[in-house]
Amino acid sequence: MLRMTKQADYGIVLMTRMAGEAGRQFTAGELAEETQLPAPTVSKILKILTRQELLDSHRGVKGGYSLARDTAAITMAEIIGALDGPIAITECIDDSPGECVQEPSCAVRANWQRINDAIRLALENVTLAEMVHPLPQRLVTLGGRPSPIAADRLAAGAAGAEALR
Q1: Distance of alpha carbon 151 from alpha carbon 157, whole angstroms
Q2: pTM to 2 decimals?
Q3: What phi-psi label fits residue 64: left (phi over 0), alpha (psi between -120 and 50 degrees) or beta?
Q4: 3-state secondary structure the chain
Q5: C-beta separation of 65 from 26 below 8 A
Q6: How far apart are CA 7 and CA 58, in angstroms?
Q7: Which whole number is the average pLDDT over 130-139?
Q8: How far apart are CA 124 and CA 131, in angstroms?
Q9: Could you tell me if 27 and 61 are in contact, meaning their C-beta atoms sit under 8 angstroms apart?
Q10: Which residues contact 3 (CB under 8 A, 6 or more apart)?
Q11: Beta partners for 142?
Q12: The Cα angle at residue 43 between residues 27 and 39, in degrees rounded to 5
């Protein structure tokens, strides 16, 4: 199973919450309460994101954290990379030669690199600004046609809209 860590997931939740009010400063306590994440975890993540220059830290009584850049200039790849390290689905992808004994004769390494590049590109193409606004639900297609479930929902929606007219 390919899965990012909870730390990266929580980091995206925190950054998305902050992006919702991009000009505002947040304390770790406020963010923990608003996102319902454990305060120690929130503090740890905010410190890492500050070190990685995705957040600015403000000291003092009215201190807190704010986004270091515009929401459209921060990508999911940057946040995940800051918290989890380089995006690499296999050990041989992250520029650490010698991690795998099969590396010199591996017949699939180039394809894993291609897959990894596609994942990284997808994450680089989603910005924090986009995460603030959820995408509309898409219809699931099977064989080029909407699935029966999606078709039922579509028909129900059309019937409901017709009844309102």
Answers
A1: 10
A2: 0.77
A3: left
A4: CCCCCHHHHHHHHHHHHHHCCCCCCECHHHHHHHHCCCHHHHHHHHHHHHHCCCEEEECCCCCEEEECCCHHHCEHHHHHHHHHCCCCCCCCCCCCCCCCCCHHHCCCHHHHHHHHHHHHHHHHCCEHHHHHCCCCCCCCEECCEECHHHHHHHHHHHHHHHHHC
A5: yes
A6: 22
A7: 80
A8: 13
A9: no
A10: none
A11: 145
A12: 85
8-64 per-position pLDDT tens digit = 999 999 999 999 999 899 999 999 999 999 999 999 999 999 999 999 999 988 889
Dig out the tokens for 13 from the structure: 């939740």
Residue-wise burial string across 94-128, b where 16 or more C-beta atoms lie within 10 A, e elsewhere: eeeeeeeeeeeeeeebeebeeebeeebeebeeebb
Question: Encoding tokens for residue 91?
Answer: 């050990």
* Owner of token pair 């770790």: 28
